[in-house]
């Protein structure tokens, strides 16, 4: 029969748990097993063995080509992990036979589901609650989001410069993403959780959320490494833990612990959803949609790729005969193209290196990041607040018309406050809000304050210096011109996000005090600025506006209605998940 396998928080598996009152009083009441399919070797003593019964997955025959082939190929990558665990032909992918019902519990399926709204893909399982045995794996792939991936590539390349046939790299990248996606969701149905730290280990897992890795090679963008191919090192280690069929008389607990010890010795990191997903997250490696080992260096690199593509962006990015309004839709993922890496960098501020450590396993437990890393993160984020980063070329603005009849802006659109027309200042405000709401997240500020108290910053960046570094002062820009307008937007969003933190009832008192103190400092700065004779009319109006907001806020912080700042379009998931 099926043998449950012990859960280990370092294994990368989902688990089930239940109270077992038959346990001795000195043993934990909660029993924990991983979820996994039943898989046994015919010859567990041999180096390589066929399974008693293979795990078979069936792919939706209704998925159109070339998508279906990409899905089958990606799902089959898992066989590499089972081979690494000494299995032969243990993981098989077939097309779903015409007479089979995808809801039939006897079939593990990968379904391709058309849906009209944005949404995620899912890898769900039906599990025996007593043992953790997976009875059925059911992957649901949303047919819509691969187009987000295509859109990202379309923003980067003048793909239609030679006419209606696009640069083949658009489709190649989208299909590469679909292989990844099929492997990812099937991975969930094999029992595996996300590993958002895999990008730090050279894309060690299909269970991460990948961001296309596009490089700048001289004057050309190189798409050849956009998405990784094949199963990752981490995935092989996880399958080994969950699916190894040990020879009889093996001490399984010791053997499982050896597997984990080896995985740790390989330097593979594992960080999952609860750590990586929240905006206030603290882990320097656990990020969604990021690349590389050094989040700051990757942001700087990505900023160069974005600047390269923005400088070349124009009508060759859409097919001939398409309404020019479509350009705005293609611009959205490019203009906000650094958003996930910005999020990754923000987590270094007040960041803490930690792991799912067990007593005696030698893993890092809870080490604040070196102050110089944190400083570098703040400096990198500041770059994304400057007019140089937010500015769009005037020639491009003249190519962005309002939507024609039959077309319109949907929730994926760049926000505008100028009616039907594209609005470069509002577009920038959404980007500013993204960076500043992350950098000024109350949980992050609380960690910075505490790390400062614990003496981790020494003479380097403390909380006050952090708040100052995020302030772009429009006095340093001309009153008239887009640079000045964008610098004022940066200060405006900064003040509003400070008020958000100060009014946040869930924020620590020290955070609210620190931020309130900064707002008082700004009041004084604004009063001084208004006395300067050379303050131009735009800056004067802007400064009076912010001063009056702060005054009203200070009067009644509880009842004050914070002025809204537009959000950027949702963005994720890129090509499902
Ligand atoms: Zn997932």
Can you describe this structure?
The protein is an alpha/beta fold. The protein folds into 2 domains: 15-148 and 157-247, Collagenase (Catalytic Domain) (3-Layer(aba) Sandwich); 295-555, no CATH class. Helices cover 41% and strands 9% of the residues. The strands form 4 sheets. It has a 5-stranded mixed β-sheet with strand order 4-3-5-7-6. A hairpin with a 6-residue loop joins strand 6 and strand 7 (134-142). The two termini are 34 Å apart. The mean pLDDT is 95.
What key phrases describe this protein's structure?
2 domains, alpha/beta, five-stranded mixed β-sheet, Collagenase (Catalytic Domain), single chain, 19 helices, globular, binds zinc ion, 577 residues, two-stranded antiparallel sheet
Strand fraction equals 5-15%
Largest sheet: 5 strands, mixed
* End-to-end gap: 34 Å
Indicate how many domains the architecture comprises.
Answer: 2
The helical percent reads 40-55%
Q: Got a strand count?
A: 11
Give the ordered list of helices and strands. Answer: EEEHHEEEEHHEEHHHHHHEEHHHHHHHHH
Strand order, biggest sheet? 4-3-5-7-6
Q: What are the low-pLDDT stretches, counting only 5+ consecutive residues below 50? A: none
> On the 0-100 scale, what is the average pLDDT?
95
With helices defined by DSSP (H or I, 4 residues minimum), what is the helix count?
A: 19
Shape: globular
| Whole-angstrom Rg | 26 Å
Bound molecule types: zinc ion
Class inferred from helices and paired strands: alpha/beta
